[in-house]
Amino acid sequence: MSLLNTIPDYVITTKTDELINWMRKSSLWYMLFGLACCAIELMHTGGPRSDIERFGATPRASARQSDLMIIAGTLTLKMALRTRLLYDQMPDPKYIISMGSCSNCGGLFQLAYSVCDGVDKVLPVDVYVPGCPPRPEALTEGLLKLQEKIMTERWLAREERPAQV
Amino acid sequence: MSTLRTEEMTLNMGPQHPSTHGVLRFVIKADGEVMREAIPDVGYLHRSIEKIAEKVGYHGFMPYTDRVDYVCAMFTNQGWGMACEKLANIEVPRRGEYCRVIAAEFNRLASHLLTVGLMGMDIGAMTPFLHALREREMINDLIEELCGARLTFNYMRIGGVAWDLPPGWREKALAYLDHLDPIINEFNSLFSYNKICVERLAKVAPISAEDAINYNLVGPNLRASGVNWDVRKNIPYSVYPEFDFEVPLGSGEWGIVGDAMDRYMMRIREMVQSSRILRQALKRMPEGPVLAKVVRNFKPPAGECQIRVESARGDQGWYVVSDGTAFPWRVHVRTGSFAAMGIIQKLSRGLMIADLVVLIASLDVIAPEIDR
Amino acid sequence: MEALKIYERVKERFPDKVLEVSEKKPDPFAAVAADAIVAVGRLLHDDPETAMDCLSNQTGVDYKDRIEVVYHLFSYKHHHTCVLKVKLPRENPTVATVEEIWRAANWMEREIFDLLGVNFDGHSDMRRILMPEDWPGYPLRKDFVEPLEYHGISTVRESPILRLDQKKKHEHA
Question: What residue numbers bound the domain in which C147 lies?
Answer without folding.
Answer: 143-173
